[in-house]
Amino acid sequence: MIYPIRLYGDPVLRQKARPVEDVHQTVQVPGFEAVSLKTLAENMLETMYQASGVGLAAPQIGLPIRMFVAAEYADDEEEGDEDRPPRSTVLREMVMINPRLEFLSKKKDVSYQEGCLSIPGIYEEGVARYLEARVRYLDLEGNEQVMEAEDYLARVWQHETDHLNGKFFLDHLPTEVTDSHRKALAEMQRRAKAYLRELREAEAAKGAR
């Protein structure tokens, strides 16, 4: 199952996501049938791969819960375009529920170019991210797990955790950076509003039957 990815301008992307109280609960992405968290994670990973992403947070599919998925890829540029890592190079997949980040060093890096599946086509350098991070989270069985990472993967965790707190990577940059993309962002806002209107109309039609 591939979910539509919510775009810049969608209010759900500015909400602070709520914790998952029970990993055995069912959840419902607006416009779709309710599923288990395990099925949701599988669908989120499929959606992420379809969009050539490295991470995807639940709010990006319209579900404001504290959960994200991510993939670690092999560093092998010969196997494909480095901007669109092929799924065949995935080393491991991650599903993190109620993640809590800790930073293992005060050092930050600003050299990576960041993008976002909810802000397609816009990439910027200069986002300061901690170089080393530890994340504590629940897995799909409800067990607490701990992982550590540095450099790019640590950046991915920070980017996805931002989504759980209603933030975009552009928020870490000077306002003139966002202003420089005003036209593109306005178009995303228009598309976001149109999709929400479609959802409301579909729900109203369903209720009228």
From TrEMBL:
GO BP terms in the entry: translation
Catalytic reactions on record: N-terminal N-formyl-L-methionyl-[peptide] + H2O = N-terminal L-methionyl-[peptide] + formate
Pfam families documented for this protein: Pep_deformylase (PF01327)
One annotated GO molecular function: peptide deformylase activity
Active site: 160
InterPro entries given in the database record: Peptide_deformylase, Peptide_deformylase_sf
Entry's cofactor comment: Binds 1 Fe(2+) ion.
Cofactor(s) the protein requires to work: Fe(2+)
Enzyme Commission (EC) number: 3.5.1.88
Keywords: Hydrolase, Iron, Metal-binding, Protein biosynthesis
Top-level taxonomic group: Bacteria
Binding site for Fe cation: 116, 159, 163
Database matches in NCBIfam families: pept_deformyl, PRK00150.1-3
UniProt function note: Removes the formyl group from the N-terminal Met of newly synthesized proteins. Requires at least a dipeptide for an efficient rate of reaction. N-terminal L-methionine is a prerequisite for activity but the enzyme has broad specificity at other positions.
UniProt family annotation: Belongs to the polypeptide deformylase family.
Name listed for the protein in its UniProt record: Peptide deformylase
Species of provenance: Deinobacterium chartae
